[in-house]
Amino acid sequence: MPAVVRSPRRAQWHRREDGVGRLMLLPSLLPYLAFALLPIGWLFWFSFQRWNGFTAPRFAGVANYERMIGDEQWWLAVLNTVKFGAGRLIIEIPLALVLAYVFFRGVRAGTVYRTILFLPHVLSPAIIGIIFVFLLRETGGPINQLLVGSGLVEAPIRFLGEAGSALASLVGVGVWAHLGINLLLFFAGMMTIPNELLESASLEGAGHWSTLRHIVLPMLAPVTRVVILISIIGTLRSFDLVKTLTDGGPAGGTEVMFTYLYRFFFEPESVPQIGYAAALGVTASVIVGIISVAYLRISRSGRTAR
Amino acid sequence: MSTPTVTGPATRTAARPVPSRRPRRTRPLTVLLHAVLIAAALIMLSPLVFGLFASVSPLDQILSRNGGLLPRVWEWGTYVQAWTTASFSRYFVNSVIVTALVVLLDTLASSMTGYVLARRRLRGQRLLEGVYVGTLFVGLTTATLYPQYVIAEALGLANLLGIALVQLAGIMLVHIFLIKAFVLGLGTEMEDAARVDGCGLFGTYWRIAFPMMRPILATTVILGFQASWNNYQVPLVFSLAAPDLRTLVVGVSALQYDAAEGMTPYNTVLAGANMALVPIVVIFIVLQRHFVRGWTDGSVKG
């Protein structure tokens, strides 16, 4: 609404309308200030403090960050986080793409299958972890009963008992939970590909594989970038599933960044180390940011190079 | 996948009637494809079914080495036990209150903000939007839980409302931008007519624009409901000092900790887990289309 006529009454009316507009921003602004902006600033500030949560905080300069650099367990957690993320992406993305393509080309009862594959995504990751702790039990866990009963393995597998297998289990359950959403997003992206392209491809005798490679994948590139970016950020920020499925165990073998720093805030061995936890939190956010930006750069340059 | 270019009768499905997209597929391949899809569907469903079976099985059966997967006897008593002894009735009410608060506040706050951002050009508005986008990028994570709790406590909000507000702060920014984009796509004729008739900004929003936002609000309500009902971290931290504030998800994880120490039977843990899952599964099945649209809108456009 461009205000061309500027009579005093009109100006006054505009001022009042702007005032109303500002008031209407408050219901989101107030919770945002209190529970988003302030906590982020707080975290940054306290990363330079030494504080146990009870006595007065002391300014500590970059001591927390120095300690972090020498904290081997932290870097192990960072490494685990990256392994977990990479493991999930490598399995999840190609699988979701191929399945989405199958549904896209049409298959009987496709909607039913898609619904079932999407179902785990609406469930709470924390509860999924709890259920899988039971399913993956070494003695009497249903999965081991099936494996041993069918003769596929001789002795029950210690899914959560060793660092390597626990990380693999984490990846497996993560894929189980998130395959459906990636599939759905790829499928939705494919549905926007113009029909003519596919028609002309099939007229020229392009098979499924070459259609997928030369038409669907290039057309889908923007969607793929978003899906991969969401997955990267999601896995790097993991907490719920890891907390309830392995709780970082055994012996720190599946500790990820956010389960590790959570301990210094809420599950300390002696007293909370808020300053150190805050420094880890800031670093974790920076790591997520760097990896995301790096991915965006790489995926963009990869496209222009082709 | 090898692709034969044999022209066979196109397989009919009801899902998508565009014949040109229907592939020319030979029969063995179709059979194989369905075998793979059925296997995938079983892999997705069986963990939930086994969880359900185990929750009603006798404890000695699920703890023994070869107890079998089907319940020897169906003991629904585990659910009664979770509901009463483990205070799941209380947790259920908490979950409902928090989720309802989040959905209600989110719908009002996000739609109001999204509307103003789409329709007005206030001083400082660009800055505000920039800060919101920046926050989305930095993200509220596990690391901000501690300050969020400390601030809530200082404001006298170490309660269910506080849990809802912290969750709201985490989810509303995406919704604001979804709604803004939606409103920008709406024509202004109806709103203009209302303004001419003397309707103020709020009146135009509330009487004209809000009802027109229904499709996008269906999306944000679904996303908000799911995010809040399934949220673990916020109620976990708020209930560390006050178990009364536990929601269902936190209640189940507390039971799991008890079970690890032998204080709670395992079948009761699974009964609790199913109580937390069943409501959202039922709602998902009823509102399937909205969930799917919500997620595709929310991710690709957001």
UniProtKB/TrEMBL annotation, chain A:
It is found in: Cell membrane. Coiled coil: none annotated. Residues 78-295 form the ABC transmembrane type-1 domain. It comes from the Bacteria. GO terms for cellular component: plasma membrane. Keywords: Cell membrane, Membrane, Transmembrane, Transmembrane helix, Transport. It is a multi-pass membrane protein. SUPFAM superfamilies: MetI-like. InterPro entries: MetI-like, MetI-like_sf, UgpAE/MalFG_permease. The chain crosses the membrane at residues 20-45, 85-104, 116-136, 175-194, 215-236, 274-296. Pfam families: BPD_transp_1. GO terms for biological process: transmembrane transport. Belongs to the binding-protein-dependent transport system permease family. This is Sugar ABC transporter permease.
From TrEMBL, chain B:
Pfam families: BPD_transp_1. InterPro entries: MetI-like, MetI-like_sf. GO terms for biological process: transmembrane transport. It is a multi-pass membrane protein. Keywords: Cell membrane, Membrane, Transmembrane, Transmembrane helix, Transport. SUPFAM superfamilies: MetI-like. It is found in: Cell membrane. Residues 1-23 are annotated as: Disordered. The chain crosses the membrane at residues 31-54, 91-118, 130-149, 161-187, 208-229, 269-287. Residues 92-287 form the ABC transmembrane type-1 domain. Coiled coil: none annotated. GO terms for cellular component: plasma membrane. Residues 1-18 have a biased composition (Low complexity). Belongs to the binding-protein-dependent transport system permease family. This is Carbohydrate ABC transporter permease. It comes from Nonomuraea deserti. The lineage of its organism: Bacteria, Bacillati, Actinomycetota, Actinomycetes, Streptosporangiales.
